[in-house]
Amino acid sequence: MNIDMIRAAAQRLKGHARRTPLLTSPFLDEIAGRQVLVKPECLQHTGSFKFRGGWSAVSALDEATRKAGVIAFSSGNHAQGVALAAAKHGAPAVIVMPADAPKLKIDNTRALGAEVVLYDRAGGESREAVGDAISQERGLTLIRPYDEPQVIAGQGTTGLEIAQQAAELGVNDGDVLVCCGGGGLTSGIALALEADAPAMRVRPVEPEGFDDVTRSLASGEIQSNATQSGSLCDAIITPAPGESTFPLMSRLCGTGLVVSEDEALHAMALAFKRLKIVVEPGGAVALAAALFHGDKIEGDAVVAVCTGGNVDAEVFANTITKFDKH
Amino acid sequence: MNIDMIRAAAQRLKGHARRTPLLTSPFLDEIAGRQVLVKPECLQHTGSFKFRGGWSAVSALDEATRKAGVIAFSSGNHAQGVALAAAKHGAPAVIVMPADAPKLKIDNTRALGAEVVLYDRAGGESREAVGDAISQERGLTLIRPYDEPQVIAGQGTTGLEIAQQAAELGVNDGDVLVCCGGGGLTSGIALALEADAPAMRVRPVEPEGFDDVTRSLASGEIQSNATQSGSLCDAIITPAPGESTFPLMSRLCGTGLVVSEDEALHAMALAFKRLKIVVEPGGAVALAAALFHGDKIEGDAVVAVCTGGNVDAEVFANTITKFDKH
């Protein structure tokens, strides 16, 4: 895993992934006490950065392998990212999803051209068993959500853009806050910045109670979360940092930051009001850290990556109404 | 008023106004029955395209005039656009607003650095009288919201970007739908496309009951609206097309399109769900026409400009919840 793979992925993504802008607001600067630059990956195709990794992985396959098809396990953003990337390559995609996933996510994944295979999570059926059987039968290639070099390379293209866009605004150093699940995006951006903006430092951000990466970085060993459910920040809840991403984060990242769910929701409401973008709770933890944990951040400017915007209307409506008076 | 003024404005805006991306969604394409390209000016500084015209006008003044200061009449997006543009130039700005304008808009305009002068709309006080007195006393330059060549030139830079960004996606012809109030943005984009994408045609879009531009274009003479209040699409409600903008629209635009308020709200909800952007009701009428009036549109692709995103949390929350099941 190295910077050349990220640059090669950027070439393959060109004209296909969206180059999201870098947004600012004087109102957010005032709250944070420093300049806040927001990278809105919620505006990426399928509403999250996951399309980058999906496209990178699918486009890196040789043609015969790609034609045979790909498979992914996901009930969320990775599913949609891989589904659209595969569809645009004319490659079959099977997405294995829990039968009790929200109907909208199942419908969307199908509408993006993927074949959805449901498994009975509650009944103890293993998604790996279901997926392995289909993969072997059809010769599908598994695309993992983060422990996969070409996926990390695709996510890392976000970092190449941040380095260039921040420099255009005169920002060359400071902390880059990234909403962190398994660490694919975080480690990819860290690698990109090591090459293109070495005075910038990536800091993973997580919700309280699901701070496996922060604890892993602090202890130097992979730590797990006690539970994987019960958070509105579901998009970035993973069991533990990845085997490939953890060494990269250990080498390149600063200490992790942890925000409360209420702070994440407040950041969502401010992104609505001041930036006019739709961010999901898990995608707002980095902005929450930038706004409400400034004492733990270094530099006159801070970059926050808003990683996704796939949030239910009801959650979004309740959140922006609740924080309307702030 | 000509294309050279727009190109000169683009030079002055470079590095200051945001180059908004061009967004797409396969889900919107399916509803529209053709490819839909969305230009999200809600992501512009201050949440609407008005910053372009404000910056263009302020930056076009000679230094002594600019130092003396500028003045604008507005309770909405133009106020904020001019306020921020002036502040970034270090120029004083006076914004004359009705005393009964929403407190948030008054507070925002002040926070952007402008001096807000309130007048008593209900008591019959004339904003022109209030404004004229201040202007003469202090030597301020009035920046009109649309009947002002340098403002039209600034708004027209949106058209230069559309021509280039659509061409990158392989789209060189078809209708370009623009939410239309006084016609500054509409005529500016029309001039830009005449030069850079002559096979594209601008179509103004208005809400039912406030279709002064559509009727004016049809009759060949300036027509007024019967009323100027009572619409959620307040951002684009003006008494009549401008004296400078109407001749440009007459020469360059196709027939107007009219959508219902419910269609505008539905488009807002779909922009939330599929594009992850926040659009105000008046800023969503063009997208509504693209999605729900396809029989009156020509071409395999359509461009819709979402002009602003300054919407109250309550209106937005109610709208996305109402249309959640669609």
UniProtKB/TrEMBL annotation, chains A, B:
SUPFAM superfamilies in the record: Tryptophan synthase beta subunit-like PLP-dependent enzymes
Source domain of life: Bacteria
GO molecular function: ATP binding; L-serine ammonia-lyase activity; magnesium ion binding; pyridoxal phosphate binding; serine racemase activity; threonine racemase activity
Keyword Magnesium appears in the UniProt entry: yes
Alphabetized UniProt keyword annotations: Lyase, Magnesium, Pyridoxal phosphate
InterPro entries: Ser/Thr_deHydtase_PyrdxlP-BS (IPR000634), TrpB-like_PALP (IPR001926), TrpB-like_PALP_sf (IPR036052)
Cofactor requirement: pyridoxal 5'-phosphate; Mn(2+); Ca(2+); Mg(2+)
UniProt xrefs under Pfam families: PALP (PF00291)
Domain spans labelled Tryptophan synthase beta chain-like PALP: 15-308
CDD domains: Thr-dehyd (cd01562)
GO biological process, one term: D-serine biosynthetic process
Family the UniProt entry places it in: Belongs to the serine/threonine dehydratase family.
PANTHER family in the record: SERINE / THREONINE RACEMASE FAMILY MEMBER (PTHR43050), SERINE RACEMASE (PTHR43050:SF1)
Protein name as it appears in the record: Threonine dehydratase
Native source organism of the sequence: Shimia haliotis
